[in-house]
């Protein structure tokens, strides 16, 4: 037997389990894969993924998306007096037009001609509606009988976007136009692009002013309010806009930033000294280290949302409960990260400081802290920008701030333009916090 063959035989015997695995070791990976596959099949049938598309309400999603970048005007009238038109912004009972918009032409006999833009014209007369849509070419005529029932004239096939039931006719040729007709009333929706009354609300003296008109007003010598300048008047009208709630949104935003900043500062102030006490190369007492480690696990093991609910229950709603939730959660996280960083520091630097005759506190101050400080600053600033997003969520849970404003707009189901506005404000804030934290990180570490 050659030495080479002897060596091969020795290796074969040493690694026999690897070279010639048993059927059990071969079966184990296949079993794990099979269990995982069966679990996925179970989830597929349990949640009925095969028919998930049938449960999607794409029509509602389209309407909500439209409402985020467009606004609608409601035209409503009763059959008993077709001459009385109620025209309101978003169907509000308060934002009603005292003067009819230019696209509504009311005749002397009480009938109305409503221009629906690219979709056609609606002629509204007593007990009769004639809709001259671009498609189909022939008008759709609906009459109301004396008993309140509705009938559609002409027996030709009706378009697919027209739904007729016993009590209601729903016509929706496009997302930007809709007509609902019942035996009692007629409701017409027309959508327009943009965020109407974003700067000045419906009842403001400056409502409908363009940018140029606003600039001319600011420099006009004649004051709208003798007690303040026109510039101050414009700022006040924007700030107190009752439709877009700029004041409430930005005051709530400051509360959110306050929660994020103070919660992160609290975690940094508490987490760093506790991390030193939890490190084995700093604290010789195993019981202290074990207790602090388990404390870190408990603080970060409970989610920030749960902590916010606990503190809201204990201290009531408000930013204080939110900053406590952030501070407690991040104390556990930063304490865990920093204690591990302390344990992984270079011992030579500590020994060099010790050789100068420094005591334990000085060894930690000049031997350990400079090594972990860049990581500590980087992690703290990262959690600051992350907590800005987290503060929005816990604010919606009851801690206040812009999250509560966001939830209020979301619950109405109609103010989706406000939801889009608040979302953009939050997005810009998070981006600015990210840029600011990056600058601070580079400056402090340098």
Description:
With 446 residues, the protein is α+β, with helices and mostly antiparallel strands. It is 56% helix and 16% strand. The chain folds into 3 domains: 3-46; 66-193, no CATH class; 246-445, MetI-like fold (Orthogonal Bundle). It has helices spanning 3-14, 16-19, 23-46, 52-55, 58-69, 211-218, 230-239, 246-278, 286-301, 304-315, 319-343, 347-355, 360-399, 402-412, 416-445, and strands spanning 70-78, 81-89, 104-106, 112-115, 120-125, 128-133, 140-144, 150-152, 162-164, 168-174, 177-182, 185-193.
Concise summary:
The chain has helices spanning 3-14, 16-19, 23-46, 52-55, 58-69, 211-218, 230-239, 246-278, 286-301, 304-315, 319-343, 347-355, 360-399, 402-412, 416-445, and strands spanning 70-78, 81-89, 104-106, 112-115, 120-125, 128-133, 140-144, 150-152, 162-164, 168-174, 177-182, 185-193. By secondary structure, it is an alpha+beta fold. Helix 5 (58-69) packs across helix 15 (416-445), helix 10 packs across helix 11 (319-343) and helix 13 (360-399) packs antiparallel against helix 15.
């Amino acid at each position: 037997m050659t030495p080479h063959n002897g060596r091969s035989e020795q290796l074969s015997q040493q690694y026999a389990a690897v070279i010639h695995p048993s059927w059990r070791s071969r079966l184990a990976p296949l079993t794990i894969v099979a269990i995982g596959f069966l679990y996925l099949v179970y989830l597929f049938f349990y949640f009925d993924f095969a028919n998930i598309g049938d449960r999607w309400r794409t029509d509602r999603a389209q309407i909500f998306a439209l409402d985020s970048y467009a606004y609608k005007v409601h035209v409503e009238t009763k059959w008993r007096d077709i001459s009385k038109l109620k025209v309101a912004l978003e169907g509000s009972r308060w934002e009603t037009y005292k003067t009819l918009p230019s696209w509504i032409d009311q005749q002397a006999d009480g009938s109305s001609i409503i221009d629906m833009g690219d979709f056609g014209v609606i002629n509204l007369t007593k007990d009769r509606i004639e809709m001259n849509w671009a498609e189909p070419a022939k008008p759709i005529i609906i009459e109301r009988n004396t008993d309140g029932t509705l009938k559609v004239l002409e027996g030709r096939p009706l378009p697919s976007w027209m739904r007729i039931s016993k009590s209601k006719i729903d016509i929706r040729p496009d997302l930007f136009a809709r007509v609902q007709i019942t035996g009692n009333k007629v409701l017409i929706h027309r959508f327009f692009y943009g965020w109407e009354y974003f700067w000045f609300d419906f009842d403001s003296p400056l409502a409908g002013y363009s940018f140029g008109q606003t600039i001319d007003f600011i420099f006009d010598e004649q004051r709208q309010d003798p007690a303040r300048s026109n510039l101050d008047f414009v700022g006040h009208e924007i700030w107190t806009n009752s439709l877009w709630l700029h004041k409430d949104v930005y005051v709530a935003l400051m509360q959110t930033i306050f929660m994020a900043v103070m919660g992160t500062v609290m975690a940094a102030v508490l987490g760093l000294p506790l991390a030193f006490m939890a490190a084995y190369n700093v604290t010789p007492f195993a019981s202290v280290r074990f207790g602090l480690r388990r404390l870190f696990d408990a603080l970060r093991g409970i989610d920030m949302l749960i902590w916010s609910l606990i503190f809201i229950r204990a201290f009531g709603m408000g930013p204080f409960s939110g900053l406590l939730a952030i501070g407690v959660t991040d104390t556990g996280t930063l304490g865990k990260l920093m204690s591990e960083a302390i344990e992984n520091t270079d011992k030579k630097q500590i020994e060099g400081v010790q050789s100068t005759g420094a005591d334990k506190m000085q060894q930690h101050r000049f031997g350990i802290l400079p090594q972990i400080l860049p990581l500590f600053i980087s992690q703290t600033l990262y959690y600051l920008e992350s907590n800005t997003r987290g503060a929005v969520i816990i604010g919606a849970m009851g801690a206040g701030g812009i999250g509560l404003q966001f939830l209020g707009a979301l619950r109405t189901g109609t103010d989706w333009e406000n939801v889009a506005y608040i979302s953009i404000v939050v997005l810009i804030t998070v981006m600015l916090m990210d840029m600011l934290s990056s600058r601070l990180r580079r400056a402090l570490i340098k």
